[in-house]
Amino acid sequence: MQERGTSSRIRLWVLMEADRWQLTTVLTGSVALGVVAAGVAVPEMFREVVTEDPLIGELFVGFVTTTITAVTLIVSIGQLVLSQELGAVGDQKERMDASISFQQTVESYLPQAVSPAEPSSFMQVIVIEINTKATALAESLANSTGETDELESYLHTLVSDTDSIATSLSGTEFGTFDMISAALNFAYSSYLHRGRELHATYEPALDDTEAELFEDLLSVLTLFAPAREHFKTLYFQWELINLSRSIMYVALPSLVTGIWIGLFLNPERVTGTLLGVDALVLVIAIAVAIVILPFVLLLSHMFRITTVAKRTLAMGPFILRTRTNET
């Protein structure tokens, strides 16, 4: 994805590539360090504000309210995800039939009789088949006498790209972002659109074998789209379930910390220093980090989910982004 755009590496890391717990730790730690920096810069004012101004207590009570809201939101999302898995036996059978039908359609273009059941391997065999058909067509055109330089250039680029994508998909597991990231790196919409243009232009100049290869190539390219969208949807459900569990894990410590700071902390009894930093500053910084953890965790997951959703809004030969620097 970095090759397709000019977004900074840091932005791409934050929005998509980073492990969501690592990003949560970085963001939470940055906020805590900001509080410490403020306390070190103006220690007297910091202690005076915390000691005499009731705003601190109100702030942490507000954090408690935010945590409760976040948990409520996640419970609602969890119910939405769960509702998609519930249904009458007829509905479940229709889903099963549709899944098997799609697999059989893919298998009609593959050399093996049965396609892999593991998502990354299934995606990989589609990409490999695209590569195989593009290679065969390119080799056939190289031996012909027609003027097909533009088509051959397209095929060589497609072969190179699918080689890279197949390698990226190798060894990835469903549930990790690596598989989705590799699939997102394949700009199939551009290849499909350009392929249809070239097919309309060069079809009269192709022999029967080349024409059949080209049509099969476009058909397999078309199959990549629903496969990627299906596994993307399953990945979103997987991520939302993990997010729900994670927020439930951190919600109780966040609530307890917010209530304790808001109701029971006596700043005058927190004295001394640690590494030259007022102990009160450290207590407040740690408390802030704990109480904002559910919100930051939700934020870090939504960064990735919304970014992936934006990049995959259109399915098929439609290209929504005319600029490649937009993430």
Q: What does the model show?
A:
The chain is mainly α. A two-stranded antiparallel sheet has the order 1-2. It has 12 helices and 2 strands; from the N terminus they run ααααααααααββαα. The chain folds into 2 domains: 9-86 and 242-311; 95-237, Four Helix Bundle (Hemerythrin (Met), subunit A).
Which features would summarize this protein structure in a list?
single chain, 327 residues, mainly alpha, Four Helix Bundle (Hemerythrin (Met), subunit A), 2 domains, two-stranded antiparallel sheet, 2 strands, 1% strand, elongated, disordered N terminus
SSE blueprint:
Layout: H1 9-17, H2 20-41, H3 43-52, H4 55-85, H5 89-107, H6 119-142, H7 149-169, H8 177-184, H9 188-202, H10 208-264, E1 273-274, E2 277-278, H11 279-291, H12 293-311
Antiparallel strand pairs: 1-2
